[in-house]
């Protein structure tokens, strides 16, 4: 995720060295593999693909050294799949002696559509610095060029800005050195008969793999950072696949070690140049610290982690419970908003209330293991929150939840109330049936993050067929548009939508979209 | 120089290892000095400066770290004088944590006018790769950035292409690490009373200093290479100032070691990534190998160099003499043209003939020292060439030399015939007096290279006042337009002229323009 924008740079933070040392102790080993391109391709119009651009085979990549490239000539190398890593290549000159430097541009792309957009045309608020391209002068050839930065890409477009009229550039030995802390080949693939779901699983697995680096990154292209909302979903997906508990521990410790002075967990943290919390705070994200800890303990009971981090979890809950009124209504303020989804075009009150209930249930589970003496108070608060939700937020006439002063009926409210199991199973089924009837097809939602929760709510409400249908319509549609990994943003009605105004800023491998591996494992195969 | 364009990449070359080893033996030590900027400046319109752009003081450079720079902001640092070298700077972020890479551009300029031109607007034939700018992404701050390439500049414009809305870039400790193989502080400055000439001398000295690197470069911005035409003038200027004989020896050996299989010396050679001759051949440049060797021996008699290189010098002369007809007329063909000047809008026949006479005189001087048995044949050829020049090319009615089938009267013919002393002193004086009367102000000539020969011809013809006047009008005018070093190209009537269509491709520190130090020393102070 990246869309949220806050500046609170006056906030002071704790830096718990003991917890930071544990975070460091669980730093993963990064695995590197050399990948060679499969082919030289060219862009072609293809109305079935994202933004109408696909690729067509031109030559085998092995023919690259035979090309003698002059001013304004370019080649696109296709590595055949999405990878995260560095790039190196050997360059030489042909013709007369090299009487000028070589000026060369490298542009790295996850999707062909990115190669149709020029960075100069982008003027959105998101930093242009994320555009994956480099301009390089080389005074002397031959040389071996190793670009120092890491990119997220399948394609690299190499453009010769200039040689001189007397010589040409020759490119050999392009190599992508892939980086990840896991290996999808180590995962025992589940037996999925439905080939569409099988493909969705595979692409989800690659998405998760490419986001598992030094931390769980939200997106390896952008922002390459540990966000708590992405982490929660990544951890669930990881338990269903790689089962790498250390990386989850590392990330939990990072958040636990760097709370604000008032105790709140920040929405994201940086690890370079040093461990550093961001000054962005989201109420639901802070609460998800509890959720991640509980999911972790349920997958892999670890008393040390629990003892270290339970106080942090409890603090998040206490901060949130301070915001409920006497009726059991969570009153959300602008300084500590809930995220729920990128869209701010719907009322988030009821969804926020449900997230609090959802995480309070998980907190009580943790409190039980911890033998927390105050557990009854939390149970009482839970009942109060549920009771308010059932009596005030649920509208029996519509069979749906309402939200905010305008009594808005939106998809997020239904989904989160169902996930929080505020009503019984029969009622949940009714709510989601009504939601499908009245709120489908979903509009105005562009994040796989929200679609994940919708799909899971359908499963939880016993509407498996609808859940599978939505998974195919949403994640399956990305694949048919050309996805090798799942995207940060996708709106099926408007497949070319970019929250940033240009696909060159989009992240086409994004952690919060990898969850079909979790959903398929949990609801279609069994919790194995 | 750079304007000449030939492709002869089928030509095979000799590589005389013994001579190349001697060239390596005389490799200079490069001296490095840290230079800090004097001020932060801004461009201002100033009709008295090149292209109408000067600079104005904004802040002391020491205030740079106080600036917090955002998207599209920029600063121009002024180092106070022209230098050749590398650039380093420390970068940090201010504000919220750095949630995106820094994308930053550095543009290095010798003259303020360069900063007004965008590289994207340039579409000339000369390689865009010469434009001195770099685009850099930095993923993590703080960092110490050392740009690996060498630039030629006084100004560096630092543009923040993007940070993010959450943080700003902070720049500290900008350093220019200057490079040259000499030091103008080691030169005992002559006592010049005329302050205008004093300034011209100083700027010429800086020009020469900045071009004296691993070889005598033509221009440190572009093409950074050893050209024989520039070398001849640089060596003369060096004898008048730094008196660095080793660098001249190195360059003579480089040319002597890498002749074409037919024996011709190429017009220029490369030394990186290895010693390599260019495939450009110019008859006058090949002959100047003789001239450089003779000038060197006259400054510093060195039997070893002479013995090593005399055969190469003799070969150049023999190739040229093979091209004279029975009447003593040098017949120049298109495959092996004379350079004389960039302009191809005048007939070069007579100037070429004069260069042959000029260098044949020097060759005979060398042949005498060597005791060459064939010396009489060369003396006979010299008489034949002179006789043809006096009787056919000199037009007594006009008191000027004519050139080519159209009997064209141009400045180059007069100048070179005077330099070659084809006529006696009285006649030379008459020719140059007529030239001043009829051909001044000079038009269509944009090179200090040609202006040098005009000025020297005026001195040789006894017209010192005219010579000094021209020096002030030409080199002095560059200074008044803002030159810190003298330029590759300058046409006084059209001061904004660029042979490449844009000042960003111009070389504003160019070896062949440094010669006032030589002319002032030789003709105004005495050959001391």
From TrEMBL, chains A, B:
Gene3D superfamilies: 1.50.10.10. It comes from the Bacteria. One of its GO terms (biological process) is carbohydrate metabolic process. Coiled coil: none annotated. It comes from Lentilactobacillus kisonensis DSM 19906 = JCM 15041. Transmembrane segments: none annotated. This is Bacterial alpha-L-rhamnosidase. Residues 194-522 form the Alpha-L-rhamnosidase six-hairpin glycosidase domain. SUPFAM superfamilies: Six-hairpin glycosidases (SSF48208). Residues 37-174 form the Glycosyl hydrolase family 78 alpha-rhamnosidase N-terminal domain.
């Amino acid at each position: 995720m990246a869309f949220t924008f806050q500046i609170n740079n006056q906030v002071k933070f704790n830096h718990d060295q003991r917890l930071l040392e544990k975070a460091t102790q669980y730093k993963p080993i990064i695995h590197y593999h050399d990948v060679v391109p499969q082919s030289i391709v060219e862009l072609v119009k293809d109305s079935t693909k994202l933004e109408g651009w696909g690729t067509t085979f031109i030559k085998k990549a092995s023919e690259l050294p035979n090309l003698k490239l002059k001013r304004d000539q370019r080649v696109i190398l296709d590595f055949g799949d999405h990878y995260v890593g560095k790039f190196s290549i050997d360059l030489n000159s042909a013709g007369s002696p090299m009487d000028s430097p070589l000026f060369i541009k490298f542009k790295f792309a996850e999707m062909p559509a990115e190669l149709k957009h020029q960075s100069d045309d982008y003027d959105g608020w998101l930093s242009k610095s994320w555009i994956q391209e480099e301009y390089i002068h080389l005074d002397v050839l031959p040389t071996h060029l190793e670009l120092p930065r890491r990119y997220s890409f399948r394609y690299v477009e190499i453009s010769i800005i200039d040689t001189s009229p007397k010589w040409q550039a020759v490119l050999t030995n392009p190599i992508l050195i892939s980086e990840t802390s896991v290996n999808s080949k180590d995962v025992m693939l589940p037996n999925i008969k439905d080939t569409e779901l099988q493909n969705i699983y595979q692409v989800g697995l690659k998405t998760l793999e490419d986001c598992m680096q030094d931390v769980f990154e939200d997106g390896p292209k952008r922002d390459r950072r540990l966000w708590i909302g992405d982490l929660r979903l990544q951890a669930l997906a990881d338990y269903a696949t790689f089962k790498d508990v250390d990386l989850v521990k590392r990330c939990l410790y990072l958040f636990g070690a760097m709370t604000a002075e008032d105790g709140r967990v920040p929405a994201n943290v940086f690890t370079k140049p040093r461990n550093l919390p961001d000054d962005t705070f989201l109420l639901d994200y802070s609460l998800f610290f509890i959720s991640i800890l509980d999911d972790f303990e349920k997958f892999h009971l670890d008393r040390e982690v629990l003892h270290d981090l339970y106080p942090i979890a409890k603090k998040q809950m206490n901060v949130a419970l301070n915001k409920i009124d006497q009726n059991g209504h969570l009153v959300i303020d602008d300084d500590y908003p809930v995220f729920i989804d990128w869209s701010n075009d719907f009322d988030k009150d009821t969804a926020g209330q449900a997230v609090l209930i959802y995480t309070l249930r998980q907190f009580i589970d943790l409190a039980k293991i911890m033998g927390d003496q105050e557990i009854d108070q939390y149970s009482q608060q839970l009942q109060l929150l549920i009771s308010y939700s059932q009596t005030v937020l649920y509208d029996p006439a519509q069979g749906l939840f309402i939200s905010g002063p305008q009594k808005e009926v939106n998809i997020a409210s239904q989904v989160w109330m169902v996930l929080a199991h505020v009503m019984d199973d029969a009622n949940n089924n009714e709510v989601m049936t009504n939601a499908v009837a009245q709120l489908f097809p979903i509009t105005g939602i562009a994040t796989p993050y929200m679609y994940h929760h919708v799909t899971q709510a359908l499963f939880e409400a016993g509407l498996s067929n609808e859940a599978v249908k939505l998974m195919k319509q949403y994640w399956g549609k990305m694949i048919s548009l050309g996805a090798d990994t799942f995207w940060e943003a996708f709106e099926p009605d408007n497949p070319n939508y970019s929250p940033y105004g240009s696909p060159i800023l989009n992240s086409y491998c994004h952690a919060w979209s990898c969850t079909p591996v979790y959903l398929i494992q949990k609801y279609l195969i069994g919790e194995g």
